[in-house]
Specification:
- Strand 1 (about 45-50) and strand 2 (about 55-60) form a beta hairpin.
- This protein has helices at about 10-35, 35-45, 60-70, 95-100, 110-115; strands spanning about 45-50, 55-60, 85-90.
- A three-stranded mixed sheet has the order 2-1-3, with no helix packed on it.
- By secondary structure, it is mainly alpha-helical.
- It has five helices and three strands.
- Helix content is about 45%, strand content about 10%.
Length: about 120
Amino acid sequence: MMKRRKNPLLMYFDDMKADSESYYINREDKIRHHSPIEKLFDYFSSYQMIDSQGKKTNLMSVRNFFNATTPGSYIRHENAHGISSHQVINEEDVGADWIIRKNEVPVDGYFLNKLNDKGLLTY
């Protein structure tokens, strides 16, 4: 049986994807290590709520908290890539079922999943 060789172009893109993940992991480890708590919270939080007076509040899911406090972690949201990268939500969404389901940490019976059932975190 003849072995098929992988297309060099596909191998190149696989390497690029691995390098990209490695870049974000290393960058986020530096942020975790050298940044004050306010910057950490703003960097890793995925949600922003704007109240009726126009005041913006950044909110962090339990999944974001796990990512912010675990070096080498790469549990990401599709829209979370740094400061000012938030999904805008309404006040009613803070404890909504869709947010709870979306933010579960992938470990059964985990303490953070129980905390996740309560809603989002603020600083």
